[in-house]
Amino acid sequence: MRAGSIDRKAQILEEATRLFSESGYDKVTIKQLADACSITEPALYRHYSSKEAIYDSVLDAIESRLGTNDLFPELEKETEIQPFLESFALHIIHYFTKNEDIYRLLLFSALRGHSKAKRVYQIIRGTYVKFLIKQFDRFYEDGKIIKKNNEITARCFTGMVFDCALSTTLWKGFQGKAYKPEDVVANNVPIYARGLTTNKEE
Fold first, then answer.
1. Which of 7, 31, 166, 182 is deepest in the core (most CB within 10 A)?
2. How far apart are the first and last CA of the chain?
3. Per-position b or e across 74-94, b if 16+ CB within 10 A of its CB
4. Does domain 66-197 have CATH number 3.30.9?
5. Fold (CATH) for 2-51
6. Rounded to the nearest 10 degrees, how much is the dihedral formed by the CA atoms of 175, 180, 183, 187?
7. pTM of the full predicted structure?
8. Could you tell me if 33 and 52 are in contact, meaning their C-beta atoms sit under 8 angstroms apart?
9. Nearest residue to 68 (alpha-carbon basis) of 118, 125, 20, 140
């Protein structure tokens, strides 16, 4: 009985993530969620008290899906900025290419002005920005990069990488020639790395 309950909750979260990413939070109804799981609305309410509770659980699940618990400790061991940025960028591009639904949740929450839009941003994109700021601070303290506003740099680099992920998913075919993630990283990361390690003021 308990195993079945856990499986049903997992199913609800899976279908809810799909529906929220396809239509946005506001347009999804409890009936749609129940129908997608082939259960009744009362049955769904036995697992979650409201649509908002389901959405909260979807966001909680996303945190564990990002794979950063394995990635970040490895990146913290890297002592050179270019390979660090390469690994950081490739993880994001590959991950969001395979998990387009999460990126769609981020976009829908921002465009629709959802009350939890800030939390969605902090979980999905903000997670990477905050980590990158700390690592830029570390590289600066170790004398590996020059003094810059690390928050601005982290936001811009993460934004560039997320845009590359969009180019391979939601915007695929809109921009002419499609480039492999590895080619994008090989082209762009050295530019950032040189800018962080070369003091043009000297």
1. 166
2. 69
3. ebeebeebeebbbbbbbbbbe
4. no
5. Arc Repressor Mutant, subunit A (1.10.10)
6. 30
7. 0.81
8. no
9. 125
